[in-house]
Automatic annotation (TrEMBL):
Keywords: Membrane, Transmembrane, Transmembrane helix. This is Uncharacterized protein. The chain crosses the membrane at residues 7-26, 46-69, 81-106, 112-140, 160-179. It comes from Rhodococcus daqingensis.
Length: 302
């Protein structure tokens, strides 16, 4: 597996995690929309960019700390206690992380269960433990080479390999959590902006949708020669647009009642998109009398 394949695979995976969390907030499955690999990879850029910036900054800081620490160890008179203490603390943290996975809760009397670690703290403990083990081993190696230089032993190489694998696993785990939270947070932000969104959607259909009257405005179209559409639905907003289908939700969409429409673009429906830049100005609290499903069908505030 080449570096390009590995990078593309990681981008694809985290793009799937983020996009799945985004649509899951709207009670939708992203598999229904037929997203391509390029779609997922492109969406992963926004997810991985802050992660890579933090990782590069941490790597740079770790590099300078390593150089400074080696210099101090070679010039000073430190003993190996600090190294063994780091290895012991790192092993304890890794053991705690493993315990949090194998037995995530501690049962207490009266049916109370206390979590060992939160979902975020498990990879944090794993990664921090790996760093401490690697740092402790490095301290011991530098101190030993100062007194009697020799090649690194197989046990030391195995310890570094174990610490590196644990650190990679922790970073992957944390990035997965971040990608999931990123998708959900952006879905919440998008849902909060549905009411004031300037791009409003009108859907014409040949058959009634039996949509909730408190969320959509339904009206019958006047019969016209050659007119196959008989019903018009207003107060819709776009969540996703695909070549063969649109995903629409009401302007008053709420998580407690996640109504959504997946509309196929064919002869049975017609989608009309209009930009209404005046709608945010109409959203004045207390300016309307009664409940309206969206600002475009409500009378202007007096």
């Amino acid at each position: 597996m080449g570096p390009t394949t590995l990078i593309t695979g990681l981008c694809y995976y985290f793009g799937v995690v983020s996009k799945s969390a985004y649509f899951a907030y709207f009670s939708l499955d992203d598999d229904a929309f037929g997203f391509s690999t390029a779609d997922y990879v492109r969406d992963s850029v926004a997810v991985l960019y802050p992660v890579l910036v933090v990782l590069l900054a941490a790597t740079c800081a770790g590099f300078w700390i390593l150089l400074y620490g080696r210099r101090r160890l070679r010039l000073g008179r430190q003993s190996g206690r600090a190294g063994w203490a780091g290895i012991a603390a790192g092993g304890a943290l890794i053991a705690l992380a493993v315990w949090g996975v194998v037995a995530p809760v501690i049962p207490l009397p009266r049916g109370i269960a206390v979590p060992v670690l939160t979902a975020v703290m498990i990879p944090v403990a794993l990664g921090l433990g790996a760093v401490l083990i690697a740092a402790g081993t490095e301290v011991l190696v530098v101190l030993r080479s100062r007194s009697s230089p020799r090649l690194t032993t197989a046990a030391e190489r195995s310890t570094w390999l174990f610490a590196g694998a644990a650190l990679v696993l922790a970073l992957f785990w944390l990035t997965n959590i971040y990608a999931n939270d990123y998708g959900r947070d952006h879905a919440e932000a998008a849902a909060s902006e549905l009411w004031d969104k300037e791009s409003v959607v009108v859907l014409d259909t040949a058959d009634p949708l039996f949509a909730p009257s408190n969320l959509l405005q339904e009206s019958e179209l006047s019969p016209q020669p050659g007119q196959r559409f008989r019903y018009r639905y207003e107060c819709l907003r776009t969540v996703a647009v695909r070549p063969d289908r649109w995903v629409l939700v009401p302007a008053r969409w709420q998580e407690t009642y996640g109504y959504a429409l997946i509309v196929r673009i064919d002869e049975s429906s017609r989608v009309i998109v209009t930009r209404r830049s005046d709608l945010p100005d109409m959203n004045v609290p207390g300016g309307w009398h009664g409940e309206w499903p969206c600002p475009e069908v409500a009378p202007p505030p007096s």
